[in-house]
Structure formats: structure tokens, C-alpha cells
Amino acid sequence: MKEPFRSPVSIVVFVLLISLACNLPLASTPAPSPLAPIPIPTVQPPAPQAVTLEAPTAVPTIAHQIRPSDTPPTSGLLVYDVESSGTAPERRAPYGDSYKINRLERPFLQDMTYVPDLDIVTYTVGEDATWYYISIKLIGVDPNNSLGIHYGVEIDEDIDGFGDILIWVSPPYGAQWDVNGVRVLKDNNHNTGGRSATQSDAPFPGDGYETQIFDSGQGDDPDLAWVRTYAGLQSTLQIAFKKSLTKGGFMLGVLADAGWKDPGKLDYVDRITLAEAGSPVRDNKEYPLKALYAVDNSCREAIGFKPTGDEPQLCPRPEPTPGVAACRNPSQYHDQASCEAANCRWVRDPTVLVAVVYICVAP
Known about the structure:
The protein folds into 2 domains: about 75-315, no CATH class; about 315-363, no CATH class. The strands form 3 sheets. Strands 2, 5, 6, 7, 8, 9, 12, 13 and 14 form a 9-stranded antiparallel beta sheet that branches. A 5-stranded antiparallel beta sheet has the order 1-3-4-11-10, with no helix packed on it. It has 3 helices and 16 strands. The protein is mainly β and about 375 residues long. Helices cover about 5% and strands about 25% of the residues. The protein has helices spanning about 10-25, 275, 335-340; strands spanning about 75-80, 105, 120-125, 130-140, 150-155, 165-170, 180-185, 210-215, 220, 225-230, 235-240, 250-255, 295, 300-305, 345-350, 360. A hairpin with a 2-residue loop joins strand 10 (about 225-230) and strand 11 (about 235-240).
């Protein structure tokens, strides 16, 4: 096939058009404008605030009006308790643990390790115009034992065997009279003795001494009860309380407790059975101690009245010798002859430290 004819003129025109096209300005895209800076808001720091520090809570200062005498009466009712020092090496109490009637002789840990600072020997009840002074003598000499021993005075105001008032003290104990660690509690719903004050009623769901009326000086009377250590012949620890706490005649006993230490569970014998509690007396089938240990209490004595002998938890009286009159009112006899003639005993007063004084006591 024959190619089309291209004239020289057309070729020149074509070349000129291409040249012009190459020299024409291209449609330019406008250059992007620089980005405007993003404004950053100026944050002003908060104005400093005045800091108000709260003052520490001040411990209220107790203004005491009266305190017990540093030299309380040197004589008074002396009450003996069973003590276990002689049989302690045999890891047992000699006797005196009568669970049924709330007599506990358990100055032992659960493994029957003896704790002499728990073992009550005697207690003495003295008085002056304002105070009763309860002096507790222990086999040991350290009421501040690391076990944290609590000591107590139980008062039965209506003489029915149910404790009504408990003076409960906790360590540390100092040589000066102090209210710190001293509590006074009451049983307002009459259940410290379970259903009956003459026997264990376990298990009984009572709440013991449930009402607190004094705590380390806090209460209606900031001077109501005090405690101190007292290294006398017949006292390792002393508790003093105002006579106004009671109505007059009452029964009184003492206790030492490094076990449960719970006034809400007194009487302990009404909370668990003897089988659960165990026994410190080896010939008892429940020996050794189990759930109830490290506690010692005493019998109760009549204060401010003459007992008939039928009062629940009253300390036992000696059996009279046939044909011989029993010792009566020994404190009325002031010489050896009259004391012994009344079948009483003439003994040195163990509460007098600075002189030799003899008193008449029951056998």
C-alpha cells in the first residue's frame, strides 16, 4: 500500500506546534500555605492554698478528787485459797477445782505448765471511811507477767451466788495507785451464774458482765476504782474501790485470769462443760486441762453482814469439834487467853509490816 504524501510545509508546521507546546507554561498548583500554629492555652497554676493541720485529739485530763490511801488499813478479813505450788512439779493441782460450784484452781497453761503469778494464796479485805482495799497475795511476785494477766474482784450484792459487779484490771501495773486499765462492769440481766448459781449449767449462752460503768477514769465517778502493785507480806496486787459502789452487805471473791480474759463469758463454768474444759486434778477423768486453763478464782466471803452458812459460793467453815463450841466473832477477842478460850487461834497479823501484831482468827 502506498504511504500518504507529507509535504515539507506540513512537516515544518508540525515541528513548530510541538515546540510551542513544550514551551507553554503548565497549569501550576498553588503552593500550600504554611500551617498556622495551633494555639496552646495558657494554664495558670492554682493559687497556693493554706493547709490547715488538725490538732491531735487531746487525751482528756481526769481531775481526780480523791484517791485511796498509800497506807491503807493493815488489818482486815483474811481469806485463804487453795494453791498449787507444792504439786506443780507433778503438773497437777492438789485439789480445790470444783467445776460444778465455780471453784477453779487452774494456774496452769494448757500443757500443765505452772504459772505462779496466777496462783492466789490469800486475799485480804480492809476498809476505811471511803474505800474497800482488796489485797491479793500470789505465789509469784510479778503481776506484769508477759501472759498479760487480768485480775478481778467479783461482788454479789443480793447474796444469791450471781455476780453483780466486777472490778476488772489489766496490765501494766505500777507501784502507785492508778485508774488506767481499771474497768467496772455490771450484770444487769442477772445471768452470770447461768440458770443456777449452785451448779454448772453449760452450755449456757449468757453474756456475763455486759454493762460497763467505768473505764480508766471515764464514767460518772472518775475516782471509782484503782489498782497498784504492793509488795507486802500478804499482798502482791491491791485493788481499791469506793464503798459507794455497793449498797452495803455483799459477798466478795477474787480471780486471776490469763486465759479467756473475757468478762462477757463469766461464769466460765456455765459456758462449756467439764469434759470440754478439762481438769487440773490428776484423779479426775477429765485430766489434763483442755479448753479452760490459766485461771484461778477463790471462794466468796461475806462483807458487811454475818453469813448464815447457806450463802452460795461462801468459803467453807471448819467443822466444829464435837463437844467444843466453834470459834465465833474472833475479832472481838483482843488477848491470847480470851481468843483461845473461844476456840479461836492467836496468830501474828501478816498484813502489818512495821511491827509484830497478833490477832485472833478462826481455826
